[in-house]
């Protein structure tokens, strides 16, 4: 007997599809879970578009106003897959209606907004999570397990990149459908909240909290046509952002993100260096974890590339999939997140990262943007 978790999905874009795929795969690959998602309703403003999405992906019904979706008695969990400026209003309304919430990242437009969201969510006690999905790539989860075992020794350095190149053209407009990421009113910030937020979440998870930061940002294209008005207006997002930080454990951090690194589409990499071991991961090769172990001796000492596909239980999540040597991909991080959310309901435990966990990343983003503005170090 399973307990259905009736999902109300808001948004049908990139994440609407990625999450829905996660919901659909969960009962097939994690059949042991008592709670299982049911695709109850999908919501967006355009009736035709959301109906087409619902038909294609198998949602039972549609809504064109998220308030109506939240008001429905047959919805247990609301999934927020819309631009960042809508997260707060929807999450607070959903929590007040007693719905569970799965919210896309970044949690909010600012830490202040995020704090308000956390307070409502905690007061209402609804189950919640934020989709920092990279935590659930098996190689990244394995990195977490190795770090937690203490095998790295004293940590000295953490560095991460998230590089893209899709906004280099001056002709690219800002705002509106598909391009809301270039409009600070919808996105809150540029690469800091969009890309570095992922790097920061993983970093905090693997290496603990960030104590202080110093940052620089740049907006390379100063004006773009806004899709809503057709007029050229000032661009107020950060096109690129680099920052240095101290982690609370005394290690040093170096982070860089840009949408102007010609040739890079989604180069997310991180490396962590400890006294005894270093680990390195690259999204383009996401099923591999590179490891240097100082204990290895002799002529063959060097970096090794672990193919994270062992089926025996030593590699996280992989016993659910194929046979050893066959890898999984990007979409599986969302399947794993769905499964962990369902498991958290089975076990009555929180599903990390919770809103409160994600607020920590928001605080770092705020400190980074403030530092870039006044050119001084900012405590988090
Ligand atoms: N976890 C990740 O790796 C990841 C990746 C991409 C995006 N995101 C986050 O997911 C969220 C959505 O991003 P996306 O790439 O899916 O965007 P998208 O542009 O592909 O889709 C946005 C969706 O929101 C809908 N929408 C906009 N306003 C709405 C409203 N008022 N009511 C109902 N629906 C509305 C649009 O119709 C569209 O379906 C953002 O917060 C983004 O930061 C996370």
From TrEMBL:
Residue span(s) of domain GFO/IDH/MocA-like oxidoreductase: 142-279
Pfam assignment, any one: GFO_IDH_MocA_C3
Signal peptide boundaries: none
Keywords linked to the UniProt accession: Oxidoreductase
Family matches, as Gene3D superfamilies: Dihydrodipicolinate Reductase, domain 2, NAD(P)-binding Rossmann-like Domain
Stretches that traverse the bilayer: none
EC number: 1.1.1.292
Coiled coil start-end: none
Any one GO molecular-function label of the UniProt entry: nucleotide binding
Xref: InterPro entries: Gfo/Idh/MocA-like_OxRdtase_N, Gfo/Idh/MocA_oxidrdct_glycsds, GFO_IDH_MocA-like_dom, NAD(P)-bd_dom_sf
All copies of domain Gfo/Idh/MocA-like oxidoreductase N-terminal, residue ranges: 5-130
Name under which the protein is recorded: 1,5-anhydro-D-fructose reductase
Organism whose genome encodes this protein: Thalassoglobus neptunius
Lineage: Bacteria, Pseudomonadati, Planctomycetota, Planctomycetia, Planctomycetales
